[in-house]
Amino acid sequence: xxxxxxxxxxxxxxxxxxxxxxxxxxxxxxxxxxxxxxxxxxxxxxxxxxxxxxxxxxxxxxxxxxxxxxxxxxxxxxxxxxxxxxxxxxxxxxxxxxxxxxxxxxxxxxxxxxxxxxxxxxxxxxxxxxxxxxxxxxxxxxxxxxxxxxxxxxxxxxxxxxxxxxxxxxxxxxxxxxxxxxxxxxxxxxxxxxxxxxxxxxxxxxxxxxxxxxxxxxxxxxxxxxxxxxxxxxxxxxxxxxxxxxxxxxxxxxxxxxxxxxxxxxxxxxxxxxxxxxxxxxxxx
Length: 285
Fold this sequence. Notes:
Strand content: 25-35%
Number of domains: 1
Number of helices: 7
Order of helices and strands: EHEHHEEEEEEEHEHEEEEEEHH
CATH architecture: 4-Layer Sandwich
CATH topology: Nitrilase/N-carbamoyl-D-aminoacid amidohydrolase
């Protein structure tokens, strides 16, 4: 069953109320163009490097404005509304980087907490310690929807192909990768990682991104993309600013890709043995 998918590109600031309004405006634009599944980026609700300020501005899931607005938009337009992720306050003082998928009646159909934490030091001086503020998730899911089997990831998860392979083996036809990639890492790796995950698993990839210079000083790469199972970019956005990209998705193309390259079926169990390299008087046997 084909469906029209939209990826919303945003430049979220430090005020969740303003970000919720921007999300609503862009989702209305996507729905007006016929989208029945709409995805927003990672950290839709707020990008804020100051941890104390972030904690002061955020709420638990029950009172979060992005969760409330996402549910209302799904119900208003009768769509599958995917808040790629937003920061949710937990009872222990930390946060969850949590995505939500709402059904057309506004109910939450799935939650996904980002599993892999972005703890890196980049060579341009940027340093990130996501685990200092966020609690990592531990559960991946494949959700059966009327139009496709859907798997979930967030941003840095895209660098861990085993997560995508496990979901593909479980039947996922569409993988979702909402993100807030840094400009530096995005320029080097964003498109190639997304296309690789699509090709190696024979699935569609939908990746809504943050884009541009944000109020907290960071710069994100943008280039939201929708990619087919053969690795073709079906729709993409620019490097900065808001955008809505849409395309028709036919999950039947997943079977076609798997028939051509049946690597999911051909995979084999194997062991890895570490052996010594060169030795005196010759080489290891």
